[in-house]
Amino acid sequence: QTVDIYTNQYGGPGRALYYRIPILRPLVPISTGWRGVRGEVNWASSIQAPLGANSPEILADIQKGVFTSAVGTKLTLSNWATPDMVRYAELLKAVMPKSCKHLYFTSGRDEIVDKGLRCLRVTRPEAQVVIGLKNQYVGHTTAAARSLTDPSAFTAPFGWFDWPLVNSIEEIEAEIQKHSADKIFAIVVELVGEKTGHVIAPDFLEKLEMIRSKTNIPLVFVETASGLGRNGESLFMSDTLSVQPNMVWWYSGAQLGHIFVDDTHYASKPLTLISTWDGDEISMRRNYRHILVAREALKQKTALYFDNECKKLGSTGKGFWQAFEIQHPERLADAGLLASKGFDNKVILNPPIHSTREEIDAGLVILRRCLLDAES
Fold this sequence. Notes:
There is one protein chain. By secondary structure, the chain is α/β, with parallel strands linked by helices. The protein contains 11 helices and 14 strands. The chain has helices spanning 56-63, 68-72, 83-95, 109-123, 143-148, 169-179, 202-215, 281-298, 302-312, 330-335, 357-375, and strands at 2-7, 15-19, 41-43, 102-106, 129-133, 165-166, 184-190, 219-222, 247-251, 257-261, 316-318, 321-325, 337-341, 346-349. The strands form 3 sheets. It has a 7-stranded mixed beta sheet with strand order 4-10-9-8-7-5-6, with helices on both faces. Strand 7, helix 7 and strand 8 form a beta-alpha-beta unit. Helix 3 (83-95) packs parallel to helix 8. The longest helix has 19 residues, at 357-375.
């Protein structure tokens, strides 16, 4: 169905045809509660489904038609702005990390890395190198994302750029000495390891602050595993830290990424960082609900309860993002607890962000039993 034809849309002789393709919602099994369709406890899908599969909140929004117009008319958001996109931006303005009051959207996880570095290029035109930490994960599609993701869990060759991934402050200082500060885009730090559960220590951040004060090299915090209230204390973990970032990278799932940036590194000239989609409206409307639910869920402090119970069992992680070393991880799934795969044989447990204590306790029963069986 043709909607309209625009001439000279980009200032040239071309014409742009906008049309609709009727589609039907697929028939999929619907769970009747917080458990999956087979009765399992799903602690493996929090990035893509922060409220769990077929959550009542999202299903209610579907019934109310919240997504209908976005599905029926998928607009290029670099050309158009819809009321719902504006509402989402207004919500983010109220909740975004306190040190980074500017925002760029991206159309997925890896584009966060690419566009984030393009943004830093504006104020650091001589930069050629990014310093990252080992065991971090920021994506595996674009050359830049692969070069900042630890390659050890992937088939070689993996990274593209010869960017250093280091283990210590001393190694960071050595790389700065090797390349010089103006040749470095930033130091990228994943606050909670998505694939490891490793939590960056406060004293490490304080030493990074000392490096920044001497070199002016920006600090970029990755909040995919710690954002959306998963850390248990705030919507973004950055807000709980004494050391503040110059930029925050947050992938919220589906086709939507966020780059929050401070005044110093914000590229204010219109269209400087334009890209094809600049986010996805369906994902924005979905994440609008996720944020509202996450803010309410923080009041229940269930993520802190989960953290405490998992630490008793030997986990690493923070809040609703915990990692275990389990010799036979398949036993978790066989017992009815779904976990995601991390690096170095780790399993990652990431419950829905609004899980109740009843739901958490049900999963912990399975986890304790499997850990006990592994020891016997």
